[in-house]
Design goal:
Blueprint: H1 12-32, H2 48-64, E1 68-75, H3 85-94, H4 99-109, E2 113-114, E3 117-118, E4 121-122, E5 126-127, H5 138-146, E6 158-162, E7 165-172, H6 175-189, H7 195-217, H8 228-258, H9 261-288
Antiparallel strand pairs: 1-7, 2-5, 3-4, 6-7
Helix pairs in contact: 3-4, 3-5, 6-8, 7-8, 8-9
């Protein structure tokens, strides 16, 4: 039956015993450094507030510097009910839980049985092979041990868990980041103060940007859609366009700087005015005429 939770109500003496065992287990795990640092649930000096602050500050810093943050949020379905008892027992052994302590845990979640009672009729007891008690003190800790090696299976990005709630994110460079970095090397190797070069670069950039706009207007099925060569052309044109516009701005600024602060001031005004005109032209095309589609 889907969506039906088993009644795992624990009596008060049982909860007191769980609290004692939980304290011993926490001390053993923390003193030996056995739990992954990516697990923030039910641990000393770890909290939801701390995790939220860390994530938001990390993402904000990346976005402020022009990077792109990709986030995947995972909430495992019936996570506590999916814990395999045999695997959990092996993972407890791997954390050096042994002897009477391990025997107590084995008796805690193994050899348990459940039945269903409907209209006064009881079903036959069935052995429970999966799951840890929900609403208990030990339940979240046992699940954390069960999923402790999950972060090790993820290598591309960062993964953080709060018991069964998982956040995966990666910080990647956008095309503008790549273009800006390449522009620095181009400007270092090929410095220029030629007005003619500015005119040529501006013309080439105009052609490239027109090509990008035409492709965008033909989305979601532009020419060579779904082909590797098509993706390569779009990415290459985008990066080259970014390099051209960045290098053109840098060259113009260099020319104006040589002519004095007044010229540099008007250069800044012209650049910002051009950006404003571009935004004003694109607004009706995107929001009114709906020329571009995803």
């Amino acid at each position: 039956m889907h969506g039906v939770k088993v009644d795992m109500t624990i009596c008060v003496p049982g909860k007191i015993l769980e609290d004692v065992v939980s304290s011993s287990l926490d001390h053993h795990i923390e003193s030996q450094g056995l739990l992954s640092h990516n697990q923030w649930g039910f641990r000393i000096n770890y909290s939801t507030e701390g995790l939220l602050l860390y994530l938001t500050e990390t993402w904000k810093e990346a976005l402020d510097t022009g990077w792109k943050v990709e986030v995947l949020l995972i909430d495992f379905r019936k996570a506590f009910d999916s814990v395999n008892h045999l695997i959990l027992q092996q993972k407890l052994k791997a954390m050096s839980v042994s002897g009477d302590f391990l025997s107590w845990f084995t008796s805690y979640f193994c050899e348990c049985r459940q039945f269903v009672q409907l209209s006064g009729v009881k079903s036959r007891p069935r052995l429970i092979k999966y799951g840890v008690p929900q609403g208990s003190i030990l339940g979240p800790r046992l699940f954390s041990i069960y999923a402790n090696d999950f972060p090790e299976a993820f290598t591309d990005g960062d993964l953080f868990m709060f018991v069964n709630d998982t956040t995966i994110f990666t910080i990647v460079a956008t095309l503008s980041n790549i273009a800006s970095a390449l522009t620095c090397f181009v400007a270092l190797w090929f410095p220029s103060t030629s007005a003619k070069l500015v005119a040529v670069l501006a013309s080439v950039y105009t052609v490239f940007s027109t090509y990008i706009i035409i492709l965008a207007s033909m989305s979601p099925t532009p020419p060579m859609h779904g082909k590797n060569i098509g993706s390569f052309v779009v990415i290459a044109v985008s990066i080259i366009s970014g390099i051209l516009i960045s290098y053109t701005k840098l060259t113009i600024s260099t020319i104006m700087r040589d002519r004095g602060k007044q010229a540099l001031f008007w250069c800044g005004i012209c650049i910002q005015t051009g950006s404003c005109i571009g935004a004003l032209l694109m607004f009706p095309l995107v929001n009114i005429l709906k020329l571009f589609h995803q």
